[in-house]
Amino acid sequence: MPMSDIAIDQIEQEITRLNYRCARILDDDRLEEWPGLFVDDCKYAIHPRDNYVAGLEGYWLYLDNHAMLRDRVKSLREANLYNIHQDRRIVTGVMFDGEQDGVFHARSSFLILQSDVEGRGRFFCTGEYLDKMVFSGGILKFKERIVVPDSFNMHGLVAVPL
User: Fold this and answer.
1) Spatial distance between the Cα atoms of 145 and 68, rounded to a whole number of angstroms
2) Which are the contacts of 156, defined by CB distance < 8 A and separation ≥ 6?
3) I need a surface site. Which of 40, 124, 149, 161 has the fewest CB within 10 A?
4) pLDDT tens across 69-116, in order?
């Protein structure tokens, strides 16, 4: 949907809603719904800031189609072992960066806090989302989400999508 068909404030609201919906789905452990936020021909990658800025590939996770997103969720449910925890994502600074050929560009900042089953809470990760989104069936979806953590080192496993 080109910019002439939709007002900038409307697209900013849609982008913000998509970001909040994604955070809520992940925080609520509704992982099976997460791939539905993406179009079929999509990309999701976690690209540490040092590598991103230097133009190096070195991803922590790289999924380049919808089937890979679904497989990631299936592996988290059936195969992977990781600490039982509860995440809380705080998404802020959602900013629309423009549109080109029906692809909307945006960026936002995130903070993820994590609590374990014993009640210990801790800071887990900060960074930014670099998003490309398109309308599919009248719904805004991610075409590309590049997650850029601020630090190359993590204190724990990155199991659930950031």
Assistant:
1) 14
2) 83, 114, 124
3) 40
4) 999 898 888 875 566 778 999 999 999 999 999 999 999 999 999 888
Domains of the chain: which residue ranges?
3-149
First to last CA, the chain: 28
Task: Report yes or no: 98 and 105 within 8 Å, Cβ to Cβ.
Answer: yes
* Residue written as token pair 């670099």: 130
What fold does the segment set 3-149 form as a domain? Answer: Nuclear Transport Factor 2; Chain: A, (3.10.450)
What one-character-per-residue DSSP string does the chain give? --GGGS-HHHHHHHHHHHHHHHHHHHHTT-GGGGGGGEEEEEEEEE--HHHHHHT----SEEE-SHHHHHHHHHHHHHT-----EEEEEEEEEEEEEEEETTEEEEEEEEEEEEEETTS-EEEEEEEEEEEEEEEETTEEEEEEEEEEES-S--SS---S--
pTM for the model: 0.89
Amino acid at 28: D
Of the candidates 44, 23, 37, 149, which has an alpha carbon nearest to the alpha carbon of residue 88?
23
